[in-house]
Structures are given as C-alpha cells and as structure tokens.
Amino acid sequence: MTAAMRPAYAADPARSRGRRLAEPAAPTRSEFQRDRDRIIHSTAFRRLVYKTQVFLNHEGDLFRTRLTHSLEVAQLGRSIARSLGLDEDLVEAVALAHDLGHTPFGHAGQDVLDACMQGHGGFEHNLQSLRVVDQLEQRYPDFDGLNLCFETREGILKHCSRRNAELIEAVEPGGIAMRFLHGGQPSLEAQLCNLADEVAYNAHDVDDGVRSGLIELEQLLEVDLVREHWRSALDAHPQLAGKRLLFETIRRMLSAQVYDIIDATRAALAAATPAEADAVRRCDKPLVRFSADMRARSTALKRFLFANLYRHPQVQSTRARAEEVLRELFSVYAGDVTQLPPDFAERPDRERACADYIAGMTDRFAIRDHQRLTGKSLF
Known about the structure:
Pfam families: HD, HD_assoc. The chain is an all-alpha fold.
C-alpha cells in the first residue's frame, strides 16, 4: 500500500519518531523494513530455533519452537494488516522480535530468572526483548543493539511493570514506557501483533498437544471454538479423519478468528474515528480486538490448554528439570564469573550479566553447559 493510500491511523515509516541514534535513510527500504531486516539477521533471532515453545526442541522435530511461533505470528499479522490498511512491515518486525528475550525452556526459564533476580531488578521477558534490541546485540560499529525505530520498540514492549516503566521513562521521557504510567495504547500495528500472538499460540498448541498425545481431539471438543469448526469440517468432508481432520479444524478456527478481528477492528475504528496514529495511542482501550463472543471463545480455549496441556504431568516434569538447570547455572555463574564469557564477566552488574547470558541461551546449550559445570545429566 502506498503512502497516499494508507489510512491516517496507520503507522507511517516516513513519519516515524525515529531511532535513538539518528541514521541516514536507506535508499531502497522504509525505516520499518530496515528494522525487520536487522531483526532477521540478529543472533538472538537465530537462537529462537532452539528455544522451547511448549515442548523441548529435542522432544520432536515437528513441535513449534520460538522461531516457528514468531513466523506464524508474523504471517497472521501481515494478513490482517493488509485487510486493515496497516503497515505490514512494522507488524512483521514487531512479530519477529517479540520473543527475542525469551529464556530457554519457555516460561519455566522466565520464572526461574525472575526468582534469581529478586533484589536485583527481577526479570521480565518482554523487557528482555527490548534489552536485546537496545543493548545486547553487538553487530554495528557505532552503537550497541539494533537501533530500531520507536514504533518497533514500542511494539516489542508488550508488558512492563511500573517500576521498570519508571526506569525507562527516566532515560526516555515521553517514550515507549509512558503508556504503562499514564494510560494509553501502542500503535494499531503493535496491538495487532499482541492479538496475532494469542491466535497463533492457541492454534499451534492445539496441534502440538494432539500430536504429542498429551491431549485428545475428543477432549478438545469440550471447547466451543474447536467443536464448531470440527463439525463444519466434517459437514464439508464427511470422510475426513485423523490428522487431516485436525488440520482442517485448526485452519477453519484460524480463519474464523482472523475474520472476526478484521470485522471487530473495523467497527472499533469507525466508532473511534482516530484521525492519526497518535490518536490511537490516546485511546483508553485497544482498537484491534475480537468481538465479545470470539473473545469469550478464545479465553475458553486458553483455559482448556492451561489446564490440560501446560499443566500436564509430563510437561510439568520437564519444567521441573528445566528449572533446576537454570537455577543451578545462575548459582554457578554468580558465584564464579570466570565461568562467563569475558564480555559478561567484566560487567560490574554481576547478577544482571548472569541473567542476560542465561536468557540468551538455547535449550540445548543450557543443558550442555549445566552438565559441564555440575556433572549432572537431567535430560
């Protein structure tokens, strides 16, 4: 979509709030395209291929990882953005970067690091994603991080505690943390990524849960959203069974959610009539949304997955071992910084250096280093 055709409420790369360190414009790419390209070429992005979504990478070749999850979020986001006239490149950049700060072993790793960092600022994976693109990537001669645009960084910081928001606001007044202190919303593109993230993980966790054998399709039929599209798939294809039936059910479920977001968001935009991108930021509620009915259905599916997949005894057993790996790694590094690479060992903020190093690990690297340092083989 050309700039002349773009709705006034969409983000415009030509009117970006810019980068923390000014750079000359690229001759062939918009500012948001440059951000997306920098993210794709980053070390942290490549590591996502060996970071847990729900199942450890070595538990099966076809389970989602943080990388494949991020790609699915980007695909859903771009599709919806095109229908709404939003900037697809910004949506893709935020989607590809939103999990760069995730630890090995998924949410188990985040919880361990947060516990280890109590008294030292805690640990938030969204804030860690921002730290990755602002500080921890070391690719360029003139700055640390990737020096991304305000709009991309705003989208990456999906959640933020008040304490951390105040710290960011102190060094970046009126910047990406302001909405966590004074209310308001991020850009429509960032809002869209938040919702595409939810749609993607609900769908692929259904797929991976059934593929793993931890949940049965028959169990899923307790959930309205799944049952409705399972029935419609069978109505259209009465002989369908097995994985093809599962895939067709998920495909229909995804389509229904995408179309619902488009319709509900168009209605919200028509009611709010934002005249510019900053008018979106002044709204008290997100404008990119589900309808009330689809929100209830999506929430019911999330609750089902939480109870039957994320809290499954097999997943919990893996989680317990993962927590032990990271807890002991942190203890070893914090007690002997010579075990860290020199650029981490030389930092004055010992605990944060340990957390940054561990958060950047892949699952398999963490397992190997834990075995090297402790002699234990937990996996």
